[in-house]
Design brief:
Elements (H helix, E strand, L loop, with lengths): L2 H8 L3 H8 L2 H8 L7 H11 L2 H17 L3 H16 L7 H20 L2
Helix pairs in contact: 4-5, 5-6, 6-7
C-alpha cells in the first residue's frame, strides 16, 4: 500500500500532510510512530477503570496526534470522545458509545498502517 492509499483508506488528507511536513518520506516515518503511541491503550484502560480524567487526557492527546498527521476521521472520533468526557466526567454513560466509535476507526487505521 502506498502512503497516498493509506491516507485515502484512513480518511486523511495526504496532500495537506505532505505539504506541511515537507516530503512523503518524512510523513511515512512520522505516521508509523502511531504504532508505538500508547494514548489509545491508556484511554481504553482508563475507561475500564472509570478514570475519566485519565481517559480525557489520553483521548485529547490522541486527537492532537491525529490532527498533526491529518488523520481526520480518527481525529474526529477522538474529538467526539474528548468532548463527551469533558462534558460528563462525573457521569460517563455516553463514553462507551463514543469509545466504541473511536475503537473501530482506530483499529481500521492501525490495520491499514500495518500494510504500509
Amino acid at each position: 500500500m502506498t502512503l497516498r492509499e493509506f491516507y485515502e483508506k484512513a480518511g486523511g488528507d495526504y496532500e495537506d500532510v505532505c505539504s506541511r511536513l515537507g516530503s512523503e518520506e518524512v510523513v511515512r516515518s512520522i505516521v508509523k510512530m502511531l504504532l508505538t503511541d500508547h494514548n489509545y491503550e491508556r484511554c481504553k484502560q482508563a475507561l475500564m477503570t472509570g478514570d475519566a480524567d485519565a481517559a480525557f487526557c489520553s483521548a485529547h492527546a490522541l486527537k492532537g496526534i491525529c490532527m498533526n498527521l491529518d488523520l481526520r476521521r480518527l481525529q474526529e472520533k477522538a474529538a467526539d470522545l474528548t468532548e463527551v468526557l469533558r462534558a460528563n466526567r462525573r457521569d460517563m454513560k455516553k463514553a462507551p458509545a463514543a469509545f466504541s466509535e473511536l475503537q473501530s476507526c482506530y483499529l481500521d487505521t492501525i490495520d491499514a498502517l500495518n500494510t504500509l
